[in-house]
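Hi R.,

As promised on Friday, here is the backbone we talked about, encoded as structure tokens. Could you run it through your design pipeline when you get a chance and send me back a sequence?
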């Protein structure tokens, strides 16, 4: 008897009744389908996350169900026949298959081989399932409606090549199990449409920054200055650009007199705070560790001292400022400025910044209405401003409309109630947020001294609102530019003339 004939005989022996046959069909079909779909995924033919869910979740589950039905069918068969197992096995598989032999009967060896194959298959499927569920495509597209805002921003973020799980899960078996349990909970919330809109920022569930961010970003390696040039465009006819050039002080303060932004997370320092309702927006108090190990507390001026619950208290780390390190939602004015800098919004069109902002700011009910509204607003504006529009101006307008619609699609998601300002960044100091949460005149210590909040703590201005990106603040005409730069780096800041 050939191997194929033996396999067929074995399958017929297992198919003792409809339950057993169903088990055999489920097990065999799910196994073969899994192999086929896995081959297509390895070849790059299938990349869709929903196909992955079927491959790595549904098919192994059907395989296990089929395996469970086979012994259930045999139990029902034996119960109906009321005969001994050995007689039934000899009847179904032939006396020769169950005859005792050295090392076990032929039927025992066959069952042992199939059991080993089943275990290997389930192990491989489980490992592939875990690997697939750790991919950004799965995280961003498996629950497409819920995670679409995060997926849209992730793909254009500075961390677009970093896996979601590297920041949201962390290392260790405990973190893995916790994330999978949380994922199962989220799956049921999505199934029953019971999730929050917008999705809350998971600040309390993130792993500590020293286990995630600092795997790549080592605070002790931040030192010196980093120059930035920022451009903002006016609302005038030419959308005139104005440049601000500044030196960001990024030092951790290892060198005396050179403390900068990353002083807060240097290993030698510690900053603790408590925020209202643990939202990390309104600080109840802030504490800084002194060199002698004692703590200096700053509390809200004129308010009674609040005893914050322990769960509201936190030691400051990377994500307290870099809270939108990956899922970065832009402010409308900054988004338009960036597209103008890149040439996607054409400055040859009159009042283009004003008109694009006017098209983006209305609260459209859905994405389709937004796309139509943005196009109609800009078409109507330039029908008035450029009644004799040339072919080149028409092309510039079409590019500008496409850029404005892309800004909307990245930042606004009506289905998840994500609007302008829903997810503010704490990296700067817009709207009294960011740095100003702690660095303000309202947080004072026991002597009445406030948390320092001078602009030069974090950066020094080399130019502010200048016509070009590399102009320094007012200096004597015969001043040596290199000497002026060294004065800035030493902290000898020049004041801009009126």
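Update: got your reply. Pasting your designed sequence below so it's all in one thread:
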């Amino acid at each position: 008897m050939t191997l194929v004939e033996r396999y067929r005989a074995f399958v017929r022996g297992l198919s003792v009744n409809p339950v057993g046959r169903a088990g055999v069909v489920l097990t065999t079909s799910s196994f073969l389908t899994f192999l086929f779909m896995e081959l297509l995924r390895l070849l790059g033919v299938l990349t869709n996350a929903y196909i992955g869910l079927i491959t790595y979740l549904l098919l192994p589950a059907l395989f296990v169900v089929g395996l469970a039905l086979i012994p259930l069918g045999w139990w029902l068969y034996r119960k109906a026949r009321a005969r001994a197992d050995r007689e039934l096995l000899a009847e179904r598989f032939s006396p020769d298959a169950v005859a005792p032999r050295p090392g076990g009967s032929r039927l025992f060896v066959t069952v042992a081989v199939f059991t080993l194959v089943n275990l290997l298959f389930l192990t491989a499927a489980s490992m592939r399932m875990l690997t697939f569920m750790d991919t950004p495509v799965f995280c961003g597209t498996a629950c497409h409606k819920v995670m679409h805002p995060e997926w849209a921003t992730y793909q254009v973020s500075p961390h677009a090549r970093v896996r979601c799980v590297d920041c949201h899960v962390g290392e260790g078996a405990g973190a893995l199990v916790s994330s999978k349990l949380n994922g199962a909970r989220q799956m049921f919330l999505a199934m029953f449409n019971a999730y929050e809109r917008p999705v809350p920022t998971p600040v309390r569930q993130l792993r500590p920054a020293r286990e995630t961010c600092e795997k790549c970003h080592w605070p002790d390696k931040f030192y010196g200055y980093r120059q930035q040039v920022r451009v903002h465009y006016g609302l005038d006819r030419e959308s005139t650009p104005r440049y601000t050039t500044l030196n960001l002080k990024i030092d951790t303060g290892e060198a005396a007199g050179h403390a900068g932004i990353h002083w807060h997370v240097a290993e030698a320092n510690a900053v603790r705070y408590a925020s209202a309702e643990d939202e990390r927006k309104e600080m109840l108090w802030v504490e800084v560790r002194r060199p002698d190990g004692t703590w200096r507390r700053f509390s809200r001026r004129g308010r009674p001292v609040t005893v914050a619950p322990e769960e509201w208290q936190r030691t400051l780390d990377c994500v307290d400022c870099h809270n939108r390190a990956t899922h970065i939602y832009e402010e409308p004015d900054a988004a338009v400025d960036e597209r103008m800098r890149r040439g996607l919004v054409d400055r040859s069109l009159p009042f283009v910044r004003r008109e694009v902002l006017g098209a983006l700011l209305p609260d459209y009910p859905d994405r389709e209405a937004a796309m139509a509204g943005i196009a109609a607003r800009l078409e109507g504006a330039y029908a008035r401003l450029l009644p004799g529009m040339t072919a080149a101006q028409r092309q510039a307008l079409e590019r500008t409309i496409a850029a404005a619609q892309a800004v909307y699609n990245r930042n606004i998601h009506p289905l998840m109630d994500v609007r302008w300002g829903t997810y503010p960044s704490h990296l700067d100091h817009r709207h009294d947020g960011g740095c100003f949460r702690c660095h303000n005149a309202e947080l004072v210590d026991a002597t009445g001294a406030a948390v320092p909040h001078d602009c030069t703590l974090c950066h020094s201005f080399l130019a502010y609102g200048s016509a070009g990106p590399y102009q320094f603040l007012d200096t004597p005409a015969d001043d040596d530019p290199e000497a002026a730069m060294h004065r800035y780096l030493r902290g000898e800041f020049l004041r801009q003339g009126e």
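One thing I noticed while checking it: The first helix runs from residue 3 to 14.

Thanks again,
M.
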